[in-house]
Write a structure and sequence with these properties.
Radius of gyration: 24 Å
Number of strands: 22
Helix content: 25-40%
CATH topology of the largest domain: Immunoglobulin-like
Number of helices: 11
Strand order of the largest sheet: 5-4-8-2-1-12-15-14
Largest sheet: 8 strands, mixed
CATH class of the largest domain: Mainly Beta
Shape: globular
Number of domains: 2
CATH superfamily of the largest domain: tricorn interacting facor f3 domain
Structural class: alpha+beta
Strand content: 25-35%
Distance between the termini: 73 Å
Length: 467
Amino acid sequence: MSARWITGSVLLALALTACSGKAGVPPAAPYAAPGATSAGDPLMPGGGDGGYDVQHYDLDLRITPGGRPALAGTATITATATQALSRFNMDLTGLNVGKVTVGGVPATYTRTPGKLVVTPPKPIARGRFTVGVAYSGTPRAVNDHTLGRYGWIRTGDGIFTGDEPDGAHTWFPSNDHPSDKATFGFRITVPSGLNAVANGRLTGTSKSATSVTYSWQARDPMATYLAMVDVGRFKVRSGRTPGGVPVYVAVDPAVDADGLAALYDQTVKVTDAWAKLFGPYPFDSTGAVVDDAPVQFALETQTRPEYVAAMAAIPTVVAHELSHQWFGDSVTVTRWSDIWLNEGFATYAEWMWGEREDPRDTVQHQFDGRYAQTRSDDLWKVPPAAPGRTGLFGRSVYERGAMTLHALRKKVGDQRFFAILRAWTAEHRYGNATTPQFIALAQQVSGMDLHRLFQVWLYDQGRPVNW
């Protein structure tokens, strides 16, 4: 046909054909655009990034506690572009970036507050790509007036990483939001005499005259806030639970041998007990780290919860953190407003373990004691499923969340209640989930209309009186 009759759509088709290249050569990315600058989570504004989904982090870290720099790392990140990308962002704070590559080719980059902004040498088509970031510096903890101090924290003989909710960006470039889970590999080099503990399984060690390198692999998907690297002079005990789960427990030397043995035994006992109640243990190892970090929390870091000594000695705290391996770690929230799915469930597990330890301290007793607190605004004015940023780790999320589960248990009966929990951990294993999905599953498994129960317990302000 005459050129004057070629329509715009035909011209577009010809252009796309021309840029497709030779067979076997991927086309240039059409209509590439920048990825979103956040995950769009209102409780963590600015956190996370869009346009890609991380599949794997490979972190090669040289950590010299007290050194300058304290950290020199290379992060090799495998991701899937969910759109054609002209540029993309990663979460990273306060560290010096020396080089960025995309697909092995140097890329340009800039820094904005909390972000590393990467422009690849050519637009990225939808599909798999790799990013390499060489970086160094002395990480600093997050000091948030609402959420407290977390992230990379210096200890007496090393470092502690407690990242919930968004502290991973203090020590490695990441898509730092729980909606983007990935597998991890760690290669951690530390001065001789120190130990480095991370998530998953220890796959090897190697020594030089002045340093030792520990390799760890976390082969199951993990949210960034659950990643951990602790460095110190740890005493270690390893083995297997009677149920066959490998165990690795590391404790600071300030914890005596009896404390190490007690924590190891408690970890073994709780891991196997919860596997019988909640479904098979979801990961390839269990364990604990006790460090001398100047914090007042324990954290459910995947496969290896972190404790300070006082908390590691409390059986119900160990039960709480290990229950998170199912509720929070394997099944992870999609948005932070659903955090009761982590903490309400773990608090309920804590109550159940307390009843095992002392039959007089029943779950019903725990429920009744809180229900009698008629004037507790922190329980009754903050809905667990809509806590806001200030209530993210408040009493309502933990305790009223647990009370919601007990109200459900009383409504549907034990057989259906535990069937709901096992179905939840099975259907969303290694994934992300939401409160509406839990409500739908509870109704499906129980065969009952539970809308009012969940409305008054999770969403309404005020002390529930009829459900």
